[in-house]
Amino acid sequence: MQAKKRYLLVFVSCAFLAYCYFGGYRLKSEDSNSEIHLLPDFVDVDALRTGSAVRRKERPNSESTNECRMDTCFDFSRCHKEFRVYVYSPDESLVPSHSYQKLLNVLEESRYYTSDPTQACLFVLSLDTLDRDRLSTDYVRNLQSRIQRLPFWNNGLNHVIFNLYSGTWPDYAENGLDFDPGMAILAKASVSVNNLRPGFDISIPLFHKKHPEKGGEPGFVISNNFPLNKNYLLAFKGKRYVHGIGSDTRNALFHLHNERDIVMVTTCRHGKSWKDMKDERCDEDNKEYER
User: Fold this and answer.
1) Which Pfam families does the UniProt entry name for this protein (predicted)?
2) pLDDT of 55 higher than 90
3) Distance between CA atoms of 179 and 207, rounded to whole angstroms?
């Protein structure tokens, strides 16, 4: 009889412990689910359950700036009054390239420019970042340390960095800026969809050094109605990379070239060893390019 009582007591105790464990877990889960409904809408609930959630409203560190978006890497409070652009004072020891100086001139002469950094929504470097090819005469050295010394840098928050060329021949890697842009917006030419941060970075044309600072006379756009009275529908003149990044695209341009309203000419003549890597069409392309 005593043995039966002991077995009954053990059974009841085990049942009670099981109820406390599973019942408490269920209550905890219900409390968690009820709290999830109170979370802001930018939290990934599925990721939260798996323990891998990161609140997107928290600004990412320098190692995760490739995930930057306007809601994580931009301070809108600086822009609530007016949209103003501040250009840093020039570095007396550095002379920007002619192309970058034209860009700065347009910004400083625009109605959005401000000389007061406390009123600025956007910040633009006076340091020339257009050409980050180490072989270029316009390449600015020690740019990382120079940028870090800027008084309002703040890891690139609300900054815009302009870039046309990155990396060095023959690779021309897109990440070849040789400095950390941080949370700055990149206005970049020839950027691939794999590296463009949607809704944050800006894809810009690769404009020539001879591109005019200002185009046309006042009223030209309004007076020149469609169809445009121009000789050419499409034109491109530039280097053709026989191999490496961009080679597939530029190697195919000759298919579009008709010598009339579509002029697409390329040259293989660049770099020190272009003759060693030239293909069967390089000589013909070079002649057309010069013509």
Assistant:
1) Exostosin_GT47 (PF03016)
2) no
3) 22
What distances in angstroms separate CA 277 from CA 37, 237, 244, 260, one per listed residue?
62, 20, 11, 30
Better pLDDT: 75 or 50: 75
Range of the structural domain that residue 279 is part of: 225-290
Higher pLDDT, 279 or 157: 157
239 in the same domain as 145: no
Pairing outcome for strands 122-124 and 85-87: parallel
Contacts of 67 (CB under 8 A, 6+ apart): 60, 197
Check whether residue 94 and residue 132 sit in a common domain. Answer: yes
Q: Where does residue 247 fall: left (phi above 0), alpha (psi -120 to 50 degrees), or beta otherwise?
A: alpha
34 with 71, same domain?
A: no
46: pLDDT strictly greater than 60: no
Contact 126, 93 (CB under 8 A): no
CA angle 85, 87, 91 (to 5 degrees): 175
Examine the domain organization and report whether 28 and 90 are in the same domain: no
Rounded to whole angstroms, how far apart are CA atoms 88 and 159? 11
Statement to judge: residues 234 and 273 lie in one domain: yes
Of all residues in the chain, what percent carry a pLDDT higher than 70?
72
Please count the structural domains in the chain.
3
**The pLDDT value given to residue 209:** 86
pLDDT in tens, 239-262: 887 776 667 778 888 999 998 999
**Angstrom distance (rounded) from CA 101 to CA 98:** 5
Question: Within this chain, do residues 85 and 187 fall inside the same structural domain, yes or no?
Answer: yes
pLDDT digits (tens, 9 = 90+) for 211-226: 888 876 776 666 666 6
Q: Which residues contact 198 (CB under 8 A, 6 or more apart)?
A: 69
- Same domain for 190 and 285, yes or no, is no
